[in-house]
Design brief:
Layout: H1 2-33, H2 35-69
């Protein structure tokens, strides 16, 4: 009986330590990846670059149309 209680308490203690360690590991992982903020910034930069490239293409297209009309 005492052996079973001891094993249950040991399991709960291990589970408690495991739960304590999880947020720490997650924060290290986020720091390595730059976190969510870094991810969002990279995505925003990528979108800005795509929009800039699209506007340049539009300008080239419009200038070629103007040349053809002349």
């Amino acid at each position: 009986m005492a052996d079973r209680i001891f094993s249950e308490l040991w399991f709960l203690f291990g589970f408690y330590l495991w739960q304590l360690k999880r947020p720490y590991r997650k924060s290290i992982k986020h720091e390595r990846q730059g976190g969510r903020e870094g991810e969002w910034l990279r995505e925003a930069e990528r979108i800005e670059e795509e929009e800039e490239a699209a506007s340049q293409q539009q300008q080239v297209f419009e200038s070629s149309i103007r040349r053809r009309k002349k």
